[in-house]
Design goal:
The complex is a heterodimer of chains A (210) and B (331).
Chain A (H helix, E strand, L loop, with lengths): L5 H17 L1 H9 L6 H14 L9 H15 L4 H17 L6 H19 L9 H16 L4 H18 L23 H15 L3
Helix pairs in contact in A: 1-3, 1-9, 2-3, 2-9, 3-4, 4-5, 5-6, 6-7, 7-8, 7-9, 8-9
Chain B lengths: L10 H12 L4 E4 L4 E4 L9 E4 L20 E2 L10 H10 L6 E6 L2 H16 L4 E6 L20 H13 L4 H13 L1 E7 L19 E4 L10 E4 L3 H15 L7 E8 L5 H17 L3 E8 L9 E8 L2 H8 L10
Parallel strand pairs in B: 3-4, 3-5, 5-6, 10-11
Antiparallel strand pairs in B: 1-2, 2-4, 7-8, 7-12, 8-9, 10-12
Classes of the chains: A mainly alpha (210), B alpha/beta (331).
Chain lengths: 210, 331
């Protein structure tokens, strides 16, 4: 994978934000199956704020930019989504701080930072039927592709395909964290809303890559 | 619902505005972040002690800001954790070279928001630590919590760490004291009625005229069992048992005993409960060294009470006896 610039990071965040705002109803409906139905609303309000404040974010480097995004999201998103998504961006920012150039390895480190942050903040792990069940295996896949010397395009498509595959596979799992866990066995048979939302967002980012 | 409310959305800001207008010499109100802080704060010679949580538990936490108690409090809406940026901005505004301690009752939303505020403020170079309070023995988990809930016992943690801070203790020492007080504090509550949040306009849960909720949480979350109404001495017995057994408090222990009203119970009934509890403890060889009767951590207008015991030692007792000046005092 070639070196990523701040432009690429801005593109990823902007595309993520736009998707979250546009898919508000779809994400809300997914969450309403067993959750409390506020995922779409929460993400849309948080990322609306990101888009509204877009020009004001400091862009000295990737770390600074991502920290500002973390603050914007979590100051607006209520419930548990705000702290979880805010922490993800905060940890990605911390990972970006440790490297001069944002290359493939740095992207993996940022994703690992984000997922570790979500794990810790949400007291969740693989197998609990959360977005981690999509994002962690996809990060593993990205790391494998990089090690095998795949092209940037191939790395991105493999990442997106794995996120989708794993998000769909959460259907067979029983929720152990979050509001959906109160539904117990009734949570089996529908995918985790957060995992599907992440898959939809990443597919869009990869499909429209400039 | 009959309440003194204008716009339910403005219930908390209007309460804070009134609090600030009534205490112009001691309190400062920052409306952007619902922040109530000491007018002379932050005091750079001491660790800043901050607590935030949902509103509806008054006097906790905004009405116990003052010398010897909290340096600042940032409440959320009624029974809702404050937004992350309120806590973050409060931490920045209250930053002291000696550090900041964030005190949090153990509820899922509050836990996430405060941990994140700690992380973000630390990244800004502020020395900040978070301490979770979990004194409720009623239920291990509820839909609102990760582990035990933090309830009225939070008063003792606040009082002790704030006193230590006024004496000049450093952040590590203050955390040691806070953890110690939390570890010897146990509480259980009972509800005789539900409570009515202004924005909801109807009771938060259903409780029959002849029913009580034993072990209720401070937002009306379910406790360990729903029971038929019974005489006060039987209620005290059923509440005190689990509290005493949990630590456990033993013969020869010296304790602080608190009877905390949940917002809708007259003080006459609280003193009646106090007398019953005091005598039952004496029968078990447990002596009361400090007594607290009144409203410390309420649940809006819920009729009910909680019993808190703290095992005293010389250090804790001495910190509890230090002076404090807070607006809730009426003289």
């Amino acid at each position: 994978m070639s070196t990523t610039t701040i432009d690429d990071i801005e593109y990823v965040v902007h595309s993520l934000a736009q998707t979250a705002v546009e898919k508000e109803k779809e994400f809300g409906d997914l969450d309403a199956v067993v959750g409390d139905g506020d995922l779409g609303y929460s993400l849309a309000r948080g990322f609306e704020k990101v888009l509204a404040d877009w020009d004001s974010f400091k862009r000295d480097d990737a770390a600074t930019f991502l920290q500002q995004i973390a603050l914007a999201i979590s100051s607006r998103i209520g419930g548990t989504s705000g702290p979880l998504w805010g922490t993800a961006f905060l940890r990605a920012s911390a990972a970006a701080k440790t490297t001069e150039t944002i290359d493939g390895a740095a992207v993996v480190a940022m994703l690992r930072g984000a997922t570790d942050g979500i794990k810790k903040r949400g007291n969740a792990d693989l197998g609990d039927k959360t977005l981690l069940d999509a994002l962690i295996p996809a990060t593993d896949e990205l790391e494998r592709q990089l090690a095998a010397g795949a092209s940037p395009e191939d790395c991105r498509s493999a990442f997106a395909a794995k996120v989708r595959e794993c998000a769909d596979a959460t259907s067979s799992m029983q929720a152990k964290r979050g509001r959906a866990s109160y539904s117990g066995e009734r949570s089996i048979g529908s995918p985790d809303a957060g995992a599907v939302a992440v898959a939809v967002i990443i597919e869009r980012i990869v499909a429209d890559w400039p | 619902m009959k309440k003194f409310v204008n716009d339910p959305q403005q219930f908390v800001p209007e309460m804070l505005e009134g609090l600030a207008l009534a205490n112009p010499d001691t309190l400062k109100y920052v409306p952007e972040y619902n922040l109530i802080m000491r007018a002379d704060g932050p005091d750079e010679s001491k660790v800043s002690i901050i607590q935030g949580s949902g509103s509806g538990h008054e006097p906790a936490h905004v009405m116990i800001v003052g010398k010897g108690m909290l340096d600042a409090a940032c409440p959320g809406d009624v029974f809702a954790a404050p937004p992350f940026d309120y806590v973050y901005e409060t931490t920045k505004l209250m930053a002291s070279p000696k550090g900041v301690l964030l005190l949090v009752n153990n509820y899922t939303g509050d836990k996430m928001v405060f941990e994140m505020a700690e992380e973000m403020s630390s990244a800004d170079g502020i020395e900040v630590k978070t301490l979770f309070i979990n004194d409720d023995v009623s239920v291990e988990d509820s839909t609102y919590t990760i582990g035990r809930r933090g309830v009225a016992g939070n008063f003792f943690v606040i009082k002790a760490v704030a006193a230590a801070s006024e004496r000049g203790a450093d952040l590590n020492e203050i955390i040691r004291i806070g953890e110690k007080v939390n570890s010897v504090t146990r509480t259980m509550g009972v509800a005789l009625t539900a409570c009515t949040p202004p924005a909801k306009g109807s009771p938060l849960f259903e409780l029959g005229e002849d029913e009580i909720e034993m072990g209720v949480g401070i937002h009306g979350e379910p406790g360990r069992r729903r029971a038929k109404m019974m005489p006060a001495n039987e209620i005290v017995e059923e509440m005190l048992g689990p509290v005493v057994r949990d630590l456990p408090f033993k013969e020869g222990d010296r304790v602080a005993l608190m009877i905390n009203g949940l917002g809708g119970t007259p003080i006459s009934e609280l003193y009646l409960l106090y007398g019953q509890a005091h005598k039952r403890l004496a029968e078990q060889g447990i002596s009361v060294g400090r007594s607290y009767v009144g409203e410390y951590c309420t649940s809006l207008d819920m009729a009910g009470a909680s019993i808190t015991l703290v095992r005293l030692d010389d250090e804790i007792e001495s910190l509890l006896m230090d002076p404090a000046e807070i607006p809730i005092r009426v003289f």
